[in-house]
Design brief:
Layout: H1 18-64, H2 67-70, E1 79-80, H3 83-89, E2 98-100, E3 105-111, E4 117-123, H4 130-143, E5 152-158, E6 161-167, H5 175-179, H6 188-208, E7 212-214, E8 223-225, E9 231-233, E10 240-242, E11 249-250, H7 262-267, E12 269-270, H8 272-288, H9 304-313, H10 332-344, H11 356-364
Parallel strand pairs: 1-5
Antiparallel strand pairs: 2-3, 3-4, 4-6, 5-6, 7-10, 8-9, 11-12
Helix pairs in contact: 6-8, 6-11, 8-10
């Protein structure tokens, strides 16, 4: 067909085209049908390609597990691993590859294809609680960046199976060196450095990060040591965010008894001072080389906090020190200062505890602690 606003032929001449239609009618009709069919085919092919592209793109986003699965945005740093690659790296999550275990999941040593050694945390799924913990830990650990906080390398998701990939800590957890199979391997200098490193990590979480983060489960088994015995705070499955103008949150208790502040365990009042309390208990564990709660193998009739207080009242500081330490490595003034810091961090009410930045100031100062000595902490 043709359209124009001027005459097709000179002098508006008309031409009878019947003979042309009659002579080539069938071939022309066939050409028209073939042309229409070809055009429709091309259109269908283009639509199919467009649909395939959209579906493949949606699938890739779903595999990332970022926005669509866990509503997590702007995770530019963590890498997305293939589940089968991590399964292979950990030898199918074999017992020989396991390097840690806890309430939120087991941790395995993995060697990925490029030869790097990583730690793979396989989150436990119990009554649907696994995904919220995974979401919380993935969100929080991906936004923090400090030398004393474990670094997230990536993650993987396959259905209900959830994996976190973190930097590998060659010396594993602190508790192994205090009252585990490596007891007595930490020198006094190394112990003081570990205490200071944990304190600096908590200062970052509480005061220096653009989000105020309360860890809620500060304990020796959640402090990991790298090859140089630098401490890194790990396991953010229970961590909570707080606004800087909030004094506390009211929430259900979650954590580990013995490391938990009384106001939180009893009343559910959560603030950063809950982490301060846990830090104080860890300090006493590092000093004494024993766990905060009694175990069947320990010849103690009271908790570490009560034992420390009883000796503190009588100035018997040296009786608190781990017997595996070399007495030539420390002085009684150093012991007294560390004991006082530990007790200050476990005071009640929570307002009587120092902030973690104040703790760092005390640890880095050569001066003795001024002011009234700490009072008796609540023993429960």
């Amino acid at each position: 067909m043709r359209y124009a606003d001027t005459a097709f032929f000179q002098s508006n001449q008309t031409t009878n085209i019947r003979k042309y239609l009659e002579e080539g009618g069938s071939s022309n009709k066939t050409a028209i049908v073939e042309g229409i069919a070809g055009g429709v085919g091309i259109l269908v092919l283009l639509l199919a390609l467009l649909l395939w592209y959209l579906l493949s793109r949606k699938k890739k986003v779903a595999q990332r597990g970022v926005g669509d699965i866990f509503d997590i945005s702007k995770l530019d740093g963590p890498m997305i691993y293939r589940f089968k690659d991590l399964k292979s790296a950990t030898r199918n999550f074999s017992e020989s590859s396991k390097i840690g275990e806890g309430g939120s999941g087991d941790v395995y040593k993995g060697i990925i294809k490029n030869g790097d050694v990583v730690a793979v945390k396989k989150l436990s799924i119990v009554a649907g609680k696994g995904k919220p913990d995974f979401k919380s830990e993935l969100k929080l650990i991906s936004i923090v960046n400090h030398r004393n906080i474990i670094r997230l390398l990536g993650y993987a998701v396959r259905g209900s199976e959830l994996l976190l990939v973190c930097e590998y800590m060659a010396n594993r957890s602190l508790d192994k060196f205090l009252y585990g199979e490596k007891q007595g391997c930490l020198s006094w200098k190394q112990r003081v450095a570990v205490i200071l490193g944990i304190a600096k990590g908590l200062v970052y979480l509480h005061e220096q990060s653009h989000l105020r983060i309360v860890h809620r489960d500060i304990k020796s088994s959640n402090i990991l040591l790298d090859g140089d015995f630098q401490p890194k705070i790990a396991d953010f499955g229970l961590a909570r965010l707080m606004h800087y103008d909030q004094s506390h949150l009211s929430t259900r208790f979650a954590g580990t008894l013995g490391y938990t502040a009384p106001e939180y365990a009893i009343h559910g009042h959560l603030s950063e001072k809950v982490d301060t309390y846990g830090f104080g208990i860890v300090v006493l564990e590092i000093l004494g080389g024993r766990r905060c709660n009694n175990s069947k193998t320990e010849a103690f009739s009271c908790s570490l906090l009560e034992h420390t207080w009883n000796l503190f009242k009588h100035d018997a500081y040296l009786n608190l020190v781990d017997k595996t330490l070399d007495p030539d490595e420390y002085e009684i003034d150093n012991i007294k200062k560390i004991v006082e810091i530990g007790l200050m961090c476990t005071q009640s009410p929570s307002s009587a505890r120092p902030t973690m930045s104040e703790v760092v100031g005390l640890l880095t100062s050569d001066l003795p602690i001024k002011g009234n000595p700490p009072g008796k902490p609540i023993i429960f």
